[in-house]
Amino acid sequence: MAATSAATFSVASASSPCSRVSHLTHSKSFSIKFNPKSHLRNFNGLKSADSVICESQSSFFGNESCTALKGTFSSKAQKQTQRSYTHLQTNASYKVAILGAAGGIGQPLALLVKMSPLVSELNLYDIANVKGVAADLSHCNTPSKVSDFTGASELANCLKEVDVVVIPAGVPRKPGMTRDDLFNINANIVRTLIECVADNCPDAFIHIISNPVNSTVPIAAEVLKQKGVYDPKKLFGVTTLDVVRANTFLAQRKNLKLIDVDVPVVGGHAGITILPLLSRAKPSVSLTDEEVEELTLRIQNAGTEVVEAKAGAGSATLSMAYAAARFVESSLRALDGDSDVYECAYVESDLTDLPFFASRIKLGRDGVESVISSELQGLTEYEEKALEALKPELKASIEKGVAFAQKQTVAA
Where do the coiled-coil regions begin and end (predicted)? Predict the structure, then answer.
């Protein structure tokens, strides 16, 4: 694993300050060191930088981060400053690989990950057309070095010493296609990729995006077990998009400030297995029974909403890339020592009688530090019934994935 390092920031004079940057000024350059674990604690995913008053090398820095940074400036330094830029530069230290980087999710995801100040190397893999994606991204003036890898013969090199592996590879849903229809194609793709992950970076965080996630995560777990390197704390089904949608739809419905909204989503990542716990939303909101049902159904069917709106031209790629990038950034923060990182994800779990279940987790350097059980307590009658209703379908999806993986021969 890459070593954790404190980030270094400098404030330097500039000849032509612009209106977007801070009015902090300084006659000489000086540097400020801080521990991201303390000063980026309020960072939560990707946030808009429209109102940032310091110029950063990465738009991942939002209001909270810049406020924290300014708070680290000594009063003496503030008094000495006059008309200059504030330049932020982090010591990036983590290596990320995206498998399926030339696809509809992979390309925007690669762009967003390229923007992370924590990434030192970004490896892009696909079976074709990835060289151009990498060349394009390499022109972006962010710290990470971009490398491309094409075809099975280059996959092992793509994965060497990687800290986080993200797998969006596979075919997307088309109109009339269910997530179950994707199974035979995507199951084989995930199995093949995970075999190579097991051989080349067994200690990496593994983020599974390829659908159907309810089955592909159990497939990955079985392959890793067969390879003797399974660590349940480091295997994640990325369900962040369900949370992103729940937050967005609730904020729109109740006219809330979006940045303040947080809705936990539990269960799985398909249809009725997606269960937003609206009764646990923050801030607490009052919803009628009709509103709860309408919001729940919309969140569960949001993927189909996008597929139909694109009329055969694709599925939810941009929102999925955004959600996946948020989860990558959370993982990197946890690896970097941030002790206050929480996300919802589909992981091995003992919260229910199912072996895998999506819920809120706490992330740390070793992966899942804890599974948060409190949110499943005191549910409404509607949520209790929905939870029981999703279990048979989720159980069947898990068993299907396990059966598929156990039938395959895995090379030692």
Answer: none
